[in-house]
Amino acid sequence: MTVAAAGSLPGEAVPVAKGRPALAAALRHPAALLLLPACVAVAAGLLLPILYLLALSLNPPVTGEVALAGELTLRNYARLLDWFYFSVLLRTLWVSAVTTAISTVLGVAVAHSLWRTPPHRRGLLVVVVLAPLLVSIVARTFGWMLLLGDQGLVNAVLLRLGLVEAPLHLMFTQGAVIVGLVHVFLPFMVLSVLAAYDRIDPAIPEAAGTLGAGPFTVFRETILPLLNPGIAAGVTIVFSLAMSSYVTPALMGGSGAGVLTTLIYQQLVVTYDWHFAAALVAVLLASTLLLLGAVLYHNARRTRAWMTRPGSAPR
Amino acid sequence: MIRMLQRGAFRALVGATYLFLLAPLACVVLVSFNGEAVQSFPPASWSLRWYAHAWAQESFRGGLLVSTLLACGAALIATPLAVAAALGLHRSRWRGRPALEALLLAPLVVPGIVIGISLLIALAALDVREAPLRLLIGHTVAILPYGVRTVLASLARLDPALDEAAETLGAGGWARFRHVTLPLIRPGILAGLVFGLILSFDDVSVSLFLADARTNTLPLAIMSYLEYSFDPSVAAISSMLIAVTLGLAVLLERGFGLKRLLAG
Amino acid sequence: MAHLQLDGIGRRYGHFQAVDSVSIEAGPGEFLTLLGPSGCGKTTTLRIVAGLVEPSTGRVLLDGRDVTRLGAAQRGIGMVFQSLALFPHMTVAQNVAFGLRMRRVAAGEAAGRVRRMLEVVRLGHLAERYPSQLSGGQQQRVALARALVIEPSILILDEPFGALDRKLREAMQVELRRITRELGITSLFVTHDQEEALLLSDLIAVMNGGRIEQCGTPREVFERPATPFVADFMGVTNILEGRFVAGNEAGRIAAAGALLPAPPGCALPDGAPVRLGIRPERIALRPAAGPGPAEGALAGEVVEAIYHGSNSSYRIALPSGGTLTAVRPNGQEEGQEAPLFAVGQPVLAAWEAGAATLI
Asked: Where does it sit, as one GO cellular component term (chain B) (predicted)?
């Protein structure tokens, strides 16, 4: 840890204990002492374990072995090229992409309607959108199982209306997984887009409307470009969350709908191939971090570009 | 004409989305009051029998105990760490500050399942196999950044002159924290604490690999119950989960409300 | 009541010298103001006195005792902050009592002192309110009471009236004057408002670029500014460069192509370069009778005339290239229409010898 050099504090003159330089230096910087416990906790509980896992993924696979070996190999990663595992990876990306696309359309629509709602009525609607976020993912997924099951509400309605003869098999399909994922992650998209809406002048659509544009044209021409940063953030968050979600695919997906996380679970709990599982986790971690990193970098560059733009007020 | 159609289609889409968001939750609550022996929709008769049935399940009762203890333990450990770290970050004008902030907020961007697996393997390599300890470490790390964020947010709203005013009036470092900073950031601390409780209590992905047969959390107990049976007792226990979380969410809202009171 | 002395104070932030060898003194009970534009180092100087910033060089002395290395908590100084910094979670009485609580004053005695101090600032009836329930002026008084109740050796005020509207500001200035005179406390005040400084102070130190340009009584600083910066800051906006011409009596000054009266009492060698400063409101204008210069006056042409209600201001272009600004009261007599002089009109500008100062 390199926190001992943290911040110099003007006006903090602490009497220094003689003869114990390390302690004295730390005492002169209370900020370092305050930061130390949490940094140690995150380093020991997250950073080191992840580094260990990455190291393990480079060792040759031995069933049930967790100690590091001296031999380095890429064999665990090479197994991903096997069509079976590769198709799981492709399916994960596909399911996440469809989830993200649907969440984006619905999320922008909901955020737009929230933005157009007068403030005194907005509160309740925001709670309706955000409450699912706080409810246990197991309870929410179970709700979908009730709705989509062979004896579920959707089938009951379809049967009663005479639209189908026999119940449709909606559960344990890729479609069910996508529906479940959209439900779980839609609130994140709404939150991201709402953050962008908060910075838009409500008079803009009215101004465009007085110029004779229809509501959809107004939206596409004047609002959508301003929403881009919020949508980009929401897309990243939803995509990476969808890729790393386990509960929904495990409960709602069938045997043919396995994704990366369920494959990892299998390798760890059923086949005890911890080295291969470690490689799969590394792939999952790398793809989510790369995505988030790209958006963070993009946002930082936009901010810089905006700050150094000629004509903008210097700050 | 086209405008009206557009507007109507937009309203229908938004209405359907709200329905989509609420339907599964409403469904769970409705089914939990089912009086029949089998899952059916809509229920033909009403009763509380599935609540009794859920309560009779050893795995649910055990899971409830484990989840409650775990959530309280993790939140009580993570909150002081988060408060101290946020104070340290807030005060430091050091160049390395962004790196430390990134480290402390890292658990936010690492998927829960990755946190769980890497802890499982690293602790197994150290020959630590006690599930309660593994769970406590995993949950503490996972909820820590939420506390750091809420406390940092309330610190950022403080007028730095308040601390200096207290100093000129003769207050030392501890007295300034105790009498000025702490009361003013208390809503942020409370919000972080309650948010941590909710996240820990509802968590599946971190716990998935850290729990074992003897120490199982409630969400995991429900998941394994679902694998072999599909009766409304899961609806009953899920409704209870929903009630607990919404209760905590009200507390959270009240915490933020307090904050607004202070700002105004 | 204490004697405050700053001895060669400097503060450097990286390559930026915020305060540069500042030495000033305020005797017991004196009201000293640091006056200057934003960024001139006045607030940093004040914070060094309060103990919130450590100086890079120099010493702070209170009654001859070196307190430079003492923290703010140990100095026993009362400070009123620009943002007031009232504790929002405490009542008025709790805010005022805070310093006494930190000094472990017995509860009974503290309550009495808080009550008496709230009477001094005329807030006795609002003791149980929270700061957010008070008006801006009332909040000012609470901040003042909180700083004064600990019986500080000196009182420090950092632009406390900046956020108030003009009327309230004037009322608070009078109030502050009354209270500081009543308690006879040594005060250090920071402002960028020259009128405020003139009204309140016994001594004014005008700062610019981290240094003190001039230190003196309000009258000295106002009437005899020592540098062009001080002159400009104190409202002397007309400055003419010229030479001293020795003669009988007071002598004259040759500037802008005319021979002008020199201020009384200046004894300079013949031909010495001088700068002459004249306030706009001391310049008299009259219509020019004919072309050419007149004795002791400057000829020019009005290029701008702006109506301000009771006054009008005129900008006059001089044949030598510069401009003068004059402010004249608008006429009260019948038939006179303000402004009195029209753009394009040739005028003569003159002033009494005593109205100008050498800078």
From this structure: plasma membrane
Q: What is the pLDDT of residue A299?
A: 65
Give A118→chain C minimum CA distance, Å.
28
Q: At residue C39, does pLDDT exceed 50?
A: yes
Question: Which residue is closest to B160 within chain C, CA to CA?
Answer: C85
Q: Scanning every residue of chain C, which has its alpha carbon at the shortest distance from the alpha carbon of A13?
A: C71
Residues A170, A149: Cα–Cα separation, whole Å: 7
Q: Kindly determine whether residue C52 and residue A10, on different chains, have CB atoms separated by under 8 Å.
A: yes
Q: Is the pLDDT of residue B27 over 70?
A: yes
Given the structure tokens 């649907």, which residue do they identify? A102
Q: Is-contact C302 C318, C-beta < 8 A?
A: no
Q: What is the 3-state secondary structure (H, E, C) of chain A?
A: CCCCCCCCCCCCCCCCCCCCHHHHHHHHCHHHHHHHHHHHHHHHHHHHHHHHHHHHCCCCCCCCCCCCCCCCCCHHHHHHHCHHHHHHHHHHHHHHHHHHHHHHHHHHHHHHHHHHCCHHHHHHHHHHHHHHHHCCHHHHHHHHHHHHCCCCHHHHHHHHCCCCCCCCCCCCCHHHHHHHHHHHHHHHHHHHHHHHHCCCCCHHHHHHHHCCCCHHHHHHHHHHHHHHHHHHHHHHHHHHHHHCCCHHHHHHCCHHHCCHHHHHHHHHHHCCCHHHHHHHHHHHHHHHHHHHHHHHHHHHHHHHHHHCCCCCCCC
- Residues in B whose CB is inside 8 Å of some CB of C read 159, 161-162, 164-172, 175, 179-180, 183-184, 262, 264
What three-state secondary structure class fits C43? helix
CA distance A229 to chain B (A): 19
Nearest to B210 by CA among B84, B113, B89: B113
Against chain A, the chains showing at least 3 CB pairs within 8 Å are B, C
The whole model's pTM is what? 0.80
A157 inside 8 A of chain B by CB: no
CB pairs under 8 A between B and C: 67
Contact predicate A132/B21, CB 8 Å? yes
Pairwise CB contact (< 8 Å): C72 & A10: no
The residue of C44, C48, C54 whose CB has the most chain A CBs within 10 angstroms, and thus the best one to mutate to test that interface, is C54
Q: What ipTM was predicted for this assembly?
A: 0.86
| Three-class DSSP category at C288 | coil
- As given in the structure block, the two tokens for residue A262 are 């369920």
Long-range contacts of C129-133 (CB under 8 A, 24+ apart): C129/C91, C129/C92, C130/C88, C130/C89, C130/C90, C130/C91, C130/C92, C131/C84, C131/C86, C131/C87, C131/C88, C131/C90, C131/C92, C131/C95, C132/B264, C132/C88
CA-based nearest distance C207→chain A, Å: 23
Low-confidence ranges of chain A (pLDDT < 50): 1-20, 26-27, 306-315
Structure tokens at C335: 């038939």
Which of chain A's residues have a Cβ under 8 Å away from the Cβ of C71?
A: 11, 13
